[in-house]
Design a protein that fits this description.
Layout: E1 5-7, H1 20-33, E2 43-48, H2 53-68, E3 75-82, E4 91-92, E5 96-101, E6 104-107, H3 110-119, E7 123-124, H4 127-130, H5 140-146, E8 150-157, H6 162-170, E9 177-182, E10 187-189, H7 191-206, H8 210-214, H9 221-234, E11 237-245, H10 246-249, E12 256-265
Parallel strand pairs: 1-5, 2-9, 3-8, 3-9, 4-7
Antiparallel strand pairs: 2-12, 4-8, 5-6, 10-12, 11-12
Helix pairs in contact: 1-2, 1-5, 2-5, 6-9
Length: about 270
């Protein structure tokens, strides 16, 4: 335990503001601007994008607005995302006591991480995979604004079978636990092609068609498949909260990235 370190922010000032006041103002603005049409009672999980806030922050705000409406208690957030920069086998949980952002330190649920490492062979520390990775870090300021009390279980997916992770994770979930999946959708198509591809993936996700999701272009296909399997076994219902792409937020429609927010309720 004494060897655990605080993971410093690697993308403050790049993907999101490094100034604390500006960061809080932007995140609160994205959450406040979101409008939820569905009743989301018994929220258990959300899916959120992980690009720079100027591109995906509006869409992310919908999922985190749903989280902000949860009761005020101590939550454990299983934060799932794909390893983009370092190739790993299994799921990397890191070796951290907290994730630091300009808003402060988000505590890691160290005991739960240690239990996972001790009990299941495909979990690994692989802190080297976390250090240069953006997909989990960019969600932490949103969590810090939307939840007053929480601890993280950071999970970076490498080469691993989602069904095995789903079986293990399902057995660990209690009523004070949430799943947050970090994933963008299609990458670098023209605006209309991206919308068509993303619609196909989102339809598959909403229909529980895991094969269709695996055939899509979301970078977080493995975390998404893990959530879908847990949701199917638990009887959770997915809801699409918002979809857009960087052509809607960044202006250039010749080469876009797709973003969606979804919620799963029991």
């Amino acid at each position: 335990m004494s060897e655990l370190s605080v993971r410093p922010p690697a993308f403050a000032g790049q993907f999101y503001p490094a100034d604390v006041d500006r960061l809080r103002r932007e995140v609160e603005g994205y959450i406040d601007d979101a409008s939820l049409s569905d009743a989301l009672d018994d929220l258990r999980a959300v899916v959120v994008p992980h690009a720079g806030y100027v591109y995906s922050g509006k869409t992310a705000g919908y999922a985190f607005k749903a989280l902000r409406q949860l009761p005020d208690r101590e939550w454990t957030v299983f934060l799932l995302g794909p390893a983009h920069r370092v190739s790993i086998t299994g799921v990397a949980l890191g070796a951290f006591s907290a994730f630091r952002t300009p808003l402060g330190d988000a505590r890691v649920a160290v005991q739960r991480v240690e239990e996972m490492l001790d009990e299941t062979p495909f979990y690994t520390r692989a802190a080297r995979a976390h250090q240069p990775e953006h997909c989990l870090e960019v969600e932490v300021p949103f969590l810090q604004v939307s939840l007053s009390r929480f601890a993280l279980v950071p999970m970076l997916f490498g080469q691993v079978r989602p069904d095995e992770v789903a079986r293990d994770l399902q057995g660990r979930l209690g009523e004070d636990d949430l799943i947050v999946v970090s994933s963008d959708l299609s990458h670098f198509h023209t605006y209309d092609v991206a919308r068509q591809k993303d619609r196909g993936l989102l339809d598959a996700l909403l229909e529980g068609n895991e094969t269709g999701v695996r055939q899509g272009e979301a970078c977080g296909r493995a975390p998404l498949a893990t959530l879908m399997e847990i949701g199917e076994r638990e009887g959770w219902e997915p809801h699409l909260l918002d979809y857009r792409n960087s052509g809607d937020t960044g202006g250039d429609k010749s080469r876009v990235v797709g973003y969606a927010s979804l919620a799963y309720t029991s």
